[in-house]
Every structure is written in C-alpha cells, then in structure tokens.
Amino acid sequence: MTDQDGPQYQQLLARKVEVVNVGLEGFVKDLRDCGIDVVHVDWKPSAGGDPQMAALLAKLGV
Amino acid sequence: MNVVVLNEVRKGFYLDSVALMRLSREVAGSPGVIEAALMMGTPSNAAIMRNAGLLEEGTAVKGNDLVIAVKAESETAAREALDNAIKSLDKPKSQGEAQSAWRPHSIAAAVKNRPEINLALISVPGEFAAAEARKALNRGLHVLMFSDNVSLEDELSLKQQARAAGLLMMGPDCGTAVIGGAPLAFANKLTRGRIGIVGASGTGTQEVSCLISEAGAGISHAIGVGGRDLKKDIGGITTLMAIDAFDSDPETDHVVLISKPPHPDVAKSVLQRIGKSKKSFTVCFIGASEVELPPNARFSPTLKGAAELALGHQKIGAGFDANAVASRIPRNGRGGIEGLFAGGTLCAEAQVILAAAGRKVASNAAIPGVLKLGVEPNDGRDRLIDLGDDEYTRGRPHPMIDPSVRDEALRAALRNRDLSVVLLDLVLGYGAHADPAEHLTKIVTDRGRDAPALIASVVGTEQDPQGRSAQVRKLEQAGILVAPSNAQACELAVAIVQNAGR
Asked: Cα–Cα 20 to 30 A to B444, which of B137, B141, B241, B362?
C-alpha cells in the first residue's frame, strides 16, 4: 500500500497523529492534554471472552 | 483462623487493569480482609486467582467476566467487603472528558466515523491484543501495542502483515513512543528537536530521550519496536522500517538505536541498513562489547553514553562527582549493593556498570555474562532486580503505574545489614504514577539510622506532569541521594562500597 509520497509508515512522521485507544483509559487524557485527537473504544473481550475464538474471528476479518 | 472465600462474577463487564487495581486496593483495605482481587476472568488471571486460593470451588469464569474475589477472616467481613466492591462498581461514572465523549464499541466503528484516525494504541489483556491489532491493521492503521504476553508467532505474523501493508507495528510489549509530540503509552513530555530514537526497550528510550531533552537538545520522534524485534525470529522488521522512516524524515538529523544485544544475524542486517542511511547514528546495544559499525555510526554500551554521543559528546550531569559524594557517606564496613528497578533497561544498564567496575552481579533479568538469580546460589553478589519482569507483574500493573510492587523488597533491603547501598529508579511521565517520590519516601521514612544508603535516579523532564525537580526535591528531603542519571547512580553506588570497604 504505497502512494506517490512513499509507504504509509514513512508518512506517519510527517502527518498529524490521530488515535483510537483500545484498553487503558488513562492514556486518553494524556493524549488530549497534548492536543492529540483520540477516540476511546468502549472495549469488551469479543467472542464471549474466548481468546482463541477472538483471534480466529479477527483473522477472518469479523 | 477461619478463612472464608467469597466470589462475585459479573458477566460481560469490563474494567481496565488500572481501574481494577484501584478497586482491588480499596477492597483489600476493608476490615478483616486477608486478600482481595478484582480481575477479568481470562485464563491466565483465573489461574492466578486459583493458585492464590481466591476462587471458590466450582466458580467458572470467562474472559469477559469481571471476578471479585475476597478472602477474609469471617463470613461477615467477606460479605461486607464484597458488597462494598459491588457498590463501587455500580456507582455512576464521573462525567469526565473521556466519559462524556463519544465511545464506539469497536475499532471498526471508530474508523468509520473518524476516517482521519491513523494509529491504534492497544493495551487490552495480552490474550486479546493480537486480535485487536489485526483489526486495526486490516483497517489501515499503524499500531502501538502496549500489551505483553503475546506469542512470538502472533508478533511475527502481525509484523509481516503490517510490512506488506506499509504500516508500522510497534510492539507487542512496546512501553513508549512519541510520534510528532504525541505521547503514546509511557512517555515523557520532551523538547522537540532533531534527534530521533528507535527503541526496543521502553525505559531505555525514556532515559535517553529525557537526558537529551533536559540537556537542552530535543527529540523529533521516538519509535518503539517492542523488546523482541531484534531477536532472530522477528528479524528486526519494525526496526528496519523505523530506520527507513527516519531516513526520509526532514525533521531528523541523527538517530539513536537502543536495544539489548540483538541476534548476530539481525545486528548485521540492521547495521548494514544503517550504513546505507544518509543520517548519522548512535548504536546502543546495552551490555554488548564493541560491534563493527559503518562509518556513519558510533557505539555506546550504556544509555548515558548514548545520550552523550547523540549530544555531540556533551557530558550529562558534568558537575556530579561520585567520589566526592561517596566520601561524605559514613563508612559502615559492609559491601553489598541491591538494585530495585521499575525500568528493565535501567536494570540492564546497572549490570553493565557494576560488572565493568569489577563487582560480582546477579539479576533476575541477567544480561550476557551476569548470573541469573535463582539458578544457583548468588553467594554474596550484588542483586539487581527488574521489578517489571513477569514474575512481579503477572496479574497486576507495572511498577511504573503501581510503585507498591517495590514496597516489600525495599522494606527487606532496608533491614538487610549486609547492604551498603540500595539503588532505585523513579520513572516519570504520562501513564506513570502521579507522585512516585511521595510513595517512595513514605516507605523509607522510618528506616533505621544504620540502614543502607539510598541512591535514586529520576527518569523524566521538568515538563512532565510530575515535574522532575519537584520529585528530586522530595527524595532529597527524605535523605535519598539523587544522581543526574541511572549510570551515575550506579557509579555512586560503586564509589560508596569501595569507600566502605577501605
């Protein structure tokens, strides 16, 4: 996945970071205090809390 | 004593590990309670609670269940503590910013509504972290995975997927990164400047970036790659991509690479890549002997040395004279050093410095050439403990978030009359404890007059939420010697024991 400016990972340093936070809620305030836009996901373990099933579903793109 | 164990299982109820820690403390402090835990019922947490005798016979839990477990001296005490915990859980949340803002239920929903999102910060329990990272990569996001306990197979497949998509996969177990001033996970408020960092070790990155920032220069970006990126299995995938990124970054003139000694094949390919770069490099493989470098790179085996090279040989803490400070410490005829570190890389740097000074050293996180603690008797060696290691953090937050992980070991060290010195570190910044100096001074305040000398270093900057100088002042007021860097704290420890034995 590249465009005329090079691969996305080379552009990351030049662009504004905007974050989706999944997990520790404390990170949200830290980012906002530094002027970074962040959306916090109200996360719960997927697949009824079964890690193997959650991994499989993620691989399948669910 | 009659011991009663009671459990409450909340189905489909999630709280993050820091919120759980706070509530666990509250419950553990209730009258008559021997032990208490609030944990998500993941397989690894269920095993911890079962081993601690905190799960009732027949209690079945799943990863999306919240388990409250109380062990108490009586049924009444257990019931009361449990009821209080339930009340706290059911209390309406304060209307803070995070609560009042829009909170989607998935990464997909977040990205759909906010297509500008370009990075996912993932800190869910390790068992679920790879699945969340895969969802983020599938949606074209760079990932910083703070979570640990992710398998090497998952790490490799995530990094391969990221590389194929042109995305940066930082982690798993990536403690820190600063991208364009955005502090990701544990990070410090740094002066912006023209030095970039690629770090396979979180506290190593924090120490070097803070020393550079406090010395008056600045950091462009710090990219974390995760502690295993330079192992043979992963092959330095993210490190090589990070070097590419810095190579084309007009804001960066010089790059510092920080890692424990990599696999030789990986070191070779990384150093070859550095040789092709237009930028100059400082390579810090902590504890490695001198490595063969391309002409545009310099080597340091320590973090302080790496910061000084990046600063163009400017000395860190130039006015600090370890021998002069040591000469003012009363001699006590003992000789031992014990280090109790929140920062794993600071523990590794301490091993390098003590071993180079001729000390015999043992550690639970031993670098090459140092005895691994617990394998054989350490027969009078200095003990340097990494309190962020799995054995101390399984089922509880990292000591940088919850400094009480160190309390018990510190109290024991203060009573240990074989020790001349106890070495400590405080790590400040976003994500870290709000006032680690206050916590530490409370533990040491009633130490005996003949307790070992306490030496600390403070990783942080003046702009950090805790303020470096305010933390240093609190430590000094409690009689703790504070060095300008972890390396100089170690040099002072060596000077004191050499003085004591004279």
From this structure: B362
Q: Do domains B4-90 and B322-500 have the same CATH topology?
A: no
Write the single-letter amino acid at B211: L
Total CB pairs under 8 A between chain A and B: 203
Residues B305 and B303: their CA atoms lie apart, in Å, by 5
Interhelix angle B486-500/B303-310, rounded to 10 degrees, is 130
For B383-412, what is each residue's pLDDT tens digit? 999 999 878 877 677 899 889 889 999 999
Strand locations in B210-324 (E): 219-224, 254-259, 280-285, 297-299
Residues B340, B388: Cα–Cα separation, whole Å = 10
Strands B297-299, B280-285: pairing is parallel
Residue in chain A nearest B21 by alpha carbon: A24
- DSSP result, B112-174: HH-TT--EEEE-S-HHHHHHHHHHHHHTT-EEEE------HHHHHHHHHHHHHHT--EE-SS-
Question: In chain B, what are the domain boundaries?
Answer: 4-90, 174-310, 322-500
Weakest mean pLDDT among A3-17, B147-161, B278-292, B426-440: A3-17
Chain A residues closer than 8 Å to B120 by CB: 19-22
**Mean pLDDT, residues B237-252 taken together:** 97
Give just the sign of the alpha carbon dihedral B37, B202, B193, B220: negative
Across the range B68-80, mean pLDDT stands at 92
Sequence-separated (6 or more) residues with CB below 8 Å from residue B9: B41, B59, B61, B65, B66, B67, B68
| In the predicted structure, residue A3 carries a pLDDT above the cut 70 | no
Per the CB < 8 A criterion, the answer to whether B460 and B472 are in contact is no
DSSP one-letter string for B375-440: TB--TT-EEEEETTSHHHHTTS--TTT-GGGGHHHHHHHHH-TTEEEEEEEEE-SBTS-S-HHHHH
pLDDT value of residue B378:
64
Partner residue opposite B245 with nearest CB, options A13, A19, A40: A13
Rounded CA gap, B117 and A12, in Å? 12
User: How many angstroms away from the CA of B464 is the closest CA of chain A?
Assistant: 11
The residue behind tokens 């040789």 is B275
pLDDT value at residue B97? 47
Contacts of A32 (CB under 8 A, 6+ apart): A38, B97
What radius of gyration do chain B's Cα atoms show?
23
Quote the CA–CA distance of A32 and A20 in Å, as a whole number: 12
B322-500: what fold? Rossmann fold (3.40.50)
Fold type of domain B174-310: Rossmann fold (3.40.50)
Structure tokens at B56: 């009732």
Q: Give CA–CA dist B446/B444, Å, rounded.
A: 6
Residue A37 contacts B, CB cutoff 8 Å: yes
* B4-90 to CATH, choices 3.30.1360.10, 2.60.120.580, 3.60.21.10, 1.10.340.30: 3.30.1360.10
Would you list the domain boundaries of chain A?
A: 18-62
ipTM for the assembly: 0.89
For residues B113 and A47, the answer to whether their CB atoms sit within 8 Å is: no
Can you tell me whether residue A39 is helix, strand or coil?
strand
Q: Taken in order B5, B11, B17, B20, is the CA torsion positive or negative? A: negative
